[in-house]
Amino acid sequence: MATESCPILLFFQILALFHAKTTSRETRIFLTIFYTILAIFTLTIALVYKEMIFDVRTTLGAILDIIQLALPIATELIALTESFRKRPILGRIWQKFSEIQEHLEAIPGYSGDIFAKIHRRFLIKFLLFNGGATFIEIFILIRLREDYPWLRHRSAAFLPSLFSRSLIFLYILHVDILGGLSKQITEILQEISKGQKILPEDRKTIKICWKIHRELWLCETFLRKVFALSILGIIASYSILLTVDFYWNFKAFFRASTNYVLESSLCSTPFLLTLLPLVFTGEACKKRQKRIFVEILAIAPKSATMASFGLFLRNFTLSGLHRSTGIGAWEFLNVDLRLLSEIFQTIGIYLTIFIQFEITYYTMYSSSYVYVSQ
């Protein structure tokens, strides 16, 4: 069996069986750190054996190198096709944003353009993270101009990586807008809840906020239809590239198998610079949307009689039940700690498989193996 030559792989597989049952935030953080450290530790030990995986001058290395470059490119073609096909849905999202802007302007005392503030914050985030990732990739290409095989490899991945980041940041822009609007509604409701009595104009404001909240839910639904397949495919292909980058990083540091140690260590940085804003944007948006429910429930008992409050509570419950029908897809679409932990778990498993290949190959063919410098 495969696990006989590498028992640590069986350990990973057993952990994977119980991983889906973990629910606490602390447990997910611990597992993410644990998987990463364990993968680093096992890979470091295995580096003393040999160098074969992803060396294009060997059959296995050439196959794996083609696969890990072909998957991101194929993913980009699928994402491009999906984005083009779903353009009308994306237009409906912006139509809903325009309607929300009109609703906000109807609220008494509302002033300011929330969309302008959101766009300014997003522009800073885009230039900082996406610009930084692009600069690092260009820097690597410049440094590798004298090493044609590696230059060809990184050049083939440059455009797919750039398109992936652009699509992910387009998604982040929409999530930023949803989160910013949710925060604005929460602040309006908090001002109303501070009063001892609900005034007639406050009732109008509450109704408008509830309409906006329903529009936001529709935007979430449309957002899933446009970006779900593309984002998940990009994350999967990025994970494969990150696995390979981790592999070469540790080889560069511990075995000095390349003259480009700095470039090897920077290979995985663009993915991390893309993942960070994606994680924190999704987490912040979900927290702000939950606050809307809390504030509305705090205001509702002050607004009218028990009969009308009962009607409101029934509608609220039905709306919440309606939202729950798509919560699985939406939760999975958001790159939260659960998905992040699963990504690193998968990377750890693949790294362990690579180690198993190297150990097995070295054990069987060590007498005839000739070292090939990278």
TrEMBL record:
Principal location: membrane
GO biological process: sensory perception of taste; signal transduction
Membrane spanning residue stretches: 30-49, 122-142, 162-181, 226-248, 260-280, 292-313, 343-364
Stretch forming the signal peptide: none
Gene Ontology CC annotation, any one: plasma membrane
Keywords from the named record: Cell membrane, Membrane, Receptor, Transducer, Transmembrane, Transmembrane helix
Presence of the UniProt keyword Signal in the record: no
Topology of the protein relative to the lipid bilayer: Multi-pass membrane protein
InterPro entries the record matches: 7TM_chemorcpt
Superkingdom assignment: Eukaryota
Function: Gustatory receptor which mediates acceptance or avoidance behavior, depending on its substrates.
Family statement drawn from the similarity comment of this UniProt entry: Belongs to the insect chemoreceptor superfamily. Gustatory receptor (GR) family.
Name of the molecule in the record: Gustatory receptor
Organism: Lutzomyia longipalpis (Sand fly)
